Amino acid sequence: MTMRTSNSRNLNIYRILFAFLALAMLSACDSSENLGGPRRITYWEKWSGFESEAAEKVVARFNEIERTKAKSESGYRPIEVKYVSVARIEQKLLVAIAGGNPPDVAGAYTLMLYPYVDKGAVLDLTPMLKKAGISRDQFLPSVWDLGRYHGRQWALPTTPATTALHWNRRLFSEAGFDPDIAPRTIEELDHYAERMTKWEVIGPNGASEIRTGYCPEIPDENKRLLQVGFLPSEPNWWNYAWGNYFGGDLMSDTGEVTTLSPENIRAYEWVASFSRKLGVQNVQRFVSGFGNFSSPQNAFMSGKIAMEIQGVWMYNFIENYAPGMKWGVAPFPHPEKSPQLQSTTFVDADLIMIPKGSANPDEAFEFIKYLMSQEGMELLCLGHRKFSSLIAVSENFYRDHPHPYIRIFRDLALSSNRVSSSKTGIWAEYRREMSNAVGRIQNLNVSPRDGLTEVQSRITNAEQRNQMMLTRRGLSK
Amino acid sequence: MNSRRLTGLLFCLPWFIGFGVFMLYPMVAALYYSLSDYSVLLPPVFIGFDNYIELFSDDIFWKSLNNTVVYASGAVLLSMLTSLTLALLLNSRVRGMAFYRTVFFLPTLMPVVAGSILWMWMYTGDGGIINTFLETVGITGPAWLADPRFAKPALILMAVWGAGHAMVILLAGLQDIPEHLYEAALLDGANWWHRLIHVTLPMITPVIYFNLIIGIIGSLQVFTQAFIMTGSTGSPERSTLFYVLRLYNVAFQDLRMGYACAMAWILFILVLGLTMIMHRTSARWVNYER
Amino acid sequence: MSADNPLQRSSRWLHLPLFVLGLIFLFPLAWLAASSLQPREQVGRIPPQWLPRMHYLEEDGRSIRVTPPESVGSDQLLVEPQAGPDSGRRILVSVASYQNGSITQSVQVADVVERRTFPAELIQAVPSEFVYVREWQISKYGQTQPRQFYVAPEAISISIEPVLGNYTEAIRALTAGEASKRLPIGELLSRTRWPWTEPEAIGTDITFLTYLSNTLVVAILGVLGTVISSSLVAYGLARVRWKGREALFTVILATMMIPFPVLMVPLYGVFRTLGWIGTLMPLWVPAWFAGAFNIFLLRQFFLTIPEDLTDAARIDGCSEFAIYWRIMLPLAKPALAVVALFHFLFAWNDFLGPLIFLTEPDTFTMALGLQQYQSQHGGSEWHLLMAASLLLVLPIIVLFFFTQKTFIQGISTTGLKG
Fold it and tell me: Looking at the domain assignment, is residue C219 inside a domain?
């Protein structure tokens, strides 16, 4: 008898336990589907700081338009976008999509898009775009094409960007260069870079002095870098793209892996030359003292680096963190012997897409439509101090644009030497491999030829694997 | 079934459910996934041993395994030595022993995230506090986390900072050693060193063994420090790309869950094998008599 | 204890190595505290300094906080241009570019840079030994343009005082949503989104308190679950005599060897099926199903409680559950405290779990929130990161000092009996 009662009591406690669990589960799920209220959708973006603030404003504007519409149209349920700024979106978004709990609409980097498409993580926008009358001819073609893959449109550009050489006018003047004229060739760039490299040198008597140039005659323990003219690893964002400036490419138009080309080797020889001239260890120590990109301690804005490759957004950061800094912009130099490579630029854009599993794809698309309208686009792009992805712009858009060099960037987007991310499902992996190889090349631990050979073989394999996966799923080209 | 057994099983029910749902099923599922091409979003496609074949021919897999083994050996050995030294020093009637114990134990309370950020800040190459300190004694410090040769040692050093945990366990072991053993040793005229080698260490071998097992299993799973301090790619030059970091990347960045499950199973077999080897060999040096 | 235990010899020379080692172990913590109290401009200085230094400038009998002085360089003139890109600002120009009330500057006209001349009012000639300082901004989330000064170095005074404002600034920084960061700290915290508020609730913000309450929810529900479920299982293994319990105990012990990373990928699939990805559930529900380590710990403890106590109760007709609930649990309080404490610590510090299972900032725990902030702003705002890290570790340290005995005993016994 005792045992029987004990068992039923046992069951009781479990009942309580499970009731508790069930309660907690219920409270975690929200079932507040309000029929008359606004249609709420979630929008994840990757921006932070003032870029995020600009996006928040655009979202607020959209919500306001929707509310006004609801007031004038009885029965219309306005869409309400909830903006969420997500750090490291490249890590979080995929986990959310795969977990079946994605946002309704999300911002993305181009590097994320193609792998996502191949994994079936993105909604195909093509039919919706057709219905809405949004088409390529309204956009800068190079920017529109970033969202195109396997012949379908998966994402649209929000804010476009191109890259160019940025230089610090004050450091140019100090080194005796004309602050208004940038180097035009790689060879000139090398010359400028040397003249703007400065060391603190400890003399034999312990006194320190400042020396200019690469100072190879002084042993490393007696010198410390104060300023560098040009450093390919700062910022390290396009470390895979140096080949483009020398006429190379990572993938041919037909989709072959072309890491190991004479042009690419030449490019990375050039990259490695800076490590040789400055000393690997000196560079590592110098670089580890740099502040975060978006801070006044940014290497370029704090004058530690005189020239660097940067994108159109840089103006906004300079205004925020180094107001009053004198700087200039010009297309990145080309090798003296290859004048046909002038105005080479990397075209990129922040993309917006609807993840697979989005609970409200139609509402999400309405929001995208607003972002692609002239008003939404210009609101956002002006907030980011960038040019517009659309060809049609309001009359005063460029004239009143606060960015002093905005036209240079826009024209670069039309340059015949523009390049962008390779369209392959293994693009993220390709970049990772390149990053790793370039790191070793810069640390002089591997020759450019050997480093690139390794990448070539690894990526060729990965590409084969990816094709096999696509075939298995009946998705192959 | 007799009612006692039923009662016992009912008491153990939470474990059975938890084991089934959060362990057994995942393990079996992982085994199946490891034999498939699986991206979560689409149903798995069975591909036989392709994942394992690719794994063993993948340089990065071997690199990550190598990194992990180097880190684990370094971290476990150095932490062990440090904690043993600390415990031996503290196992005396020094005034303020409780105070010192607290001092050495405090760092282990540091959440890994906070600790990693703190050490990142200290490891700054130019102007970091560690290099500044080294400079005052005439050493030009390396760039630590930015230098492929120093990144792993930097993480190992940080692990040694957490030696206080093992120290507390060892200290308890030391204080359990019966006094009469020392008295006997003294009567035999054993000096300080002999007593350490012949009395103290043999008596605490079970504790050392326990700490070794826990330490090895723990450091094979190293992830958070590297993820925060050197990024998910295990920079510089993949020198801090540890096994679990690689597993995380493959699973949650590339969404190659099948491949990741193959890695998970190999990790499981490794841990299992290591524990078994440790267990076998322990009979030779662990003193279970009390 | 009077026996001369050679390793328990009380000798003074032991203080020296202990003291040195103690300093080394405390050093990172001291640097954490020191950095968290420094003004923004002092962080990242070469060489680093320990004490927080504030710089002051006297103006009209008032003390103004300013940034650390920077050198101005060779002879310069301070002018206020009446037109051009810098009109209205006070700027420094070289003597050569100023002539008869006007300055020559490069300006951007369309895509071309031109040299143009603008009228400018001469404020003063700045001797080369003068320094440049800016008004100190209490919060980087303020919007006002700081004033700039060119003054003689003697005009700047230094005082050593901690910047406690870093802590509120860190709390602001950990807030998701840029516009909210500008709110007064009180209002910001009062708008916290709690784990139980409706996700779409308007007018709430994801603040530091959101992360804190998420962490506490995970920790407290987890502690409750662990204590209840593990003690149940431990009781079933230790005090209910049934065939097979030894075998089951061995199996349970064996599961201790399965590392979490082995399970994380398929577990993700399990939680996905349950619809838990992006919620706090994966972080605390499993705790309700008894962990091997805690079962082990509690079982060992239950075994030490004399059988007579429970046998007497059984004869009185108490059910097993009543014995467990009314007799064993009260007796096992110290061991339960150890289990609870360890689980709390685990939940507080856990990073990999939240990283994988949480997706949106409104569900983040403190550790994940801090890492997310670090991944975006690391490398420069060390003072804020240190302040935030200190906020993360402080509750643990406080908890430790209140429960030190349980702590040390818990670790010692679990270690020893292994």
Answer: yes
Looking at the fold, whether C141 and C214 belong to one and the same domain comes out as no
Helix and strand counts by DSSP (H, E) for chain C? 16, 11
Q: Could you say which of A90, A119, A436 has the minimum Cβ distance to residue B238? A: A436
Delineate the domains of chain A, giving CATH numbers in brackets.
39-161+348-414 (3.40.190.10), 163-346+423-470 (3.40.190.10)
Q: Is residue C385 part of a domain?
A: yes
Nearest to A49 among C178, C356, C361 (CB): C178
Per-residue pLDDT of chain C (418 residues; tens, 9 = 90+): 333 454 455 567 778 889 999 999 999 999 999 999 998 878 877 788 899 988 999 888 888 888 888 777 667 788 888 887 777 777 888 777 788 888 887 666 555 566 788 888 888 888 778 888 888 877 777 666 778 888 888 888 899 999 898 999 899 888 887 778 888 888 888 888 888 877 666 677 888 899 999 999 999 999 999 999 999 999 999 988 888 899 999 999 889 888 999 999 999 999 999 999 999 999 999 999 998 989 998 998 899 888 888 888 888 888 889 999 998 999 999 899 989 998 999 999 999 999 999 998 889 999 999 998 888 776 678 899 999 999 999 999 999 999 888 878 777 776 544 3
Interface test with A, best of B126, B137, B250 (most A CBs within 10 A): B126
Chain B residues with CB-CB distance to A111 below 8 A: none
Domain-embedded: residue C14: no
Find, among C104, B152, A375, C192, the residue nearest to B142 by Cα.
B152
Q: Nearest Cα to A228, choosing from A267, A265, A189?
A: A189
Its domain, for residue C147, covers 54-160
Query: ipTM for the complex?
Result: 0.93
C49 domain residue, yes or no: no
Measured CA to CA, the distance from residue B125 to residue A289 in angstroms comes to 6
* Three-state DSSP class for residue A211: strand
Our separate counts of H helices and E strands in chain A read: 16, 15
Min distance A312 CA to chain B CA atoms (Å): 26
Q: What's the CATH number where C320 sits?
A: 1.10.3720.10
Cα distance from C330 to chain B (closest Cα, Å)?
Answer: 18
Backbone torsions φ then ψ of A251, nearest 5 degrees:
-145, 140
**pTM score, whole prediction:** 0.90
| Tokens standing for residue B25 | 């099923």
Instruction: For domain B59-285, give the CATH number.
Output: 1.10.3720.10
Cα gap A274→A288, rounded to integer Å: 17
Determine how β-strand A148-149 pairs with β-strand A208-212: unpaired
Task: Enter the DSSP assignment of A316.
Answer: H
DSSP string over B164-193: HHHHHHHHHHHHTS-HHHHHHHHHTT--HH
